[in-house]
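Researcher: I'm preparing a figure for a lab meeting and need a structural model of a single chain. I don't have an experimental structure, so a prediction will have to do for now. The sequence is pasted below. Please return the structure as tokens so I can convert it later.
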Amino acid sequence: MIRLAVIGTNWITDQFIEAALFTQQYQLSAIYSRSMSSAEDFAQKYQTLTPSPRLFDDLEQLAQSDSIDAVYIASPNSLHAQYAIQMMQAGKHVICEKPLAANARLAEEMFAVAEQNNVVLCEAFMSPHTPNFKILQSQLPNIGALRKAFITYCQYSSRYPKYLAGENPNTFNPQFANGSIMDIGFYCLASAVALFGRPEKVYAQAQLLPSGVDGSGSVVLTYPGFEVVLQHSKTSDSFLSSEFQGEEGALHMQMISVGKKISKIMRGQAEEDLSVEQHSNPMVYEALDFAEQLVNNKMNPVAKERSLIVAQLLTEIRRQTGVKFPQDQ
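Model: Understood. Here is the structure written out token by token.
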């Protein structure tokens, strides 16, 4: 049984804990928050677990605890690298929410620390682990030579009205290494890399907010024989599916972030639903993958390479669009 600690007390942490416990390969051993009262409030729903999780408001005490094997990090993006490195240097395995780090340099340092300490570092990117994403991946050769792909994720942020009202929520604050491409745009970019690898060229444009981060944008990735267009936004909604166009047909995927539905349309034929039933919590599949890496005590080299490529592309996209973070200094 993997003894799991969590850093961060928000809804996504709850979702990962639910997924981890469902796999029956983890026990929740510790909860960290910067304030003990927040940790206590968050832990209320888990006090019936046996044993109940220990609570921490000191990161070093958490890192040095001998009752923890692995740590799930869901802190603000700007703290991912710092927290992960501290945990890994203490011998803890880490699964860190996407994006892995604020920039490529920090992501590379994180993997170097993981290797130096013989621990697993995993980016919590759920999309490629879902069954319907795997169907998409396996079906791409069946639509003929790929010529165009369009991957979209646009969702009006619940925190955007606060930003418009003059507040400064983390979501739109460069101090926290945030913005559209670093948040939901990540799913578009990382999905493209998961499917097609490193592009030959990248061209990006974005609509910057006065705070200095991007509210929305688009990216064109060039591959041999085809291009992938990414559309992302936290200031508007889209109801379009992602589409992959081959010379003989096309594949449509609804909500590529969670692999909601996958269908195939061959030329002259009716649309065919290829979807399979998935767990309602899509994080179950990444939790299973992380557990497998820990059992084997070996990082997944494909996932590592994907994370590094995505971190490099995110850094280049921000360079092209003028989004700067304090961590870039």
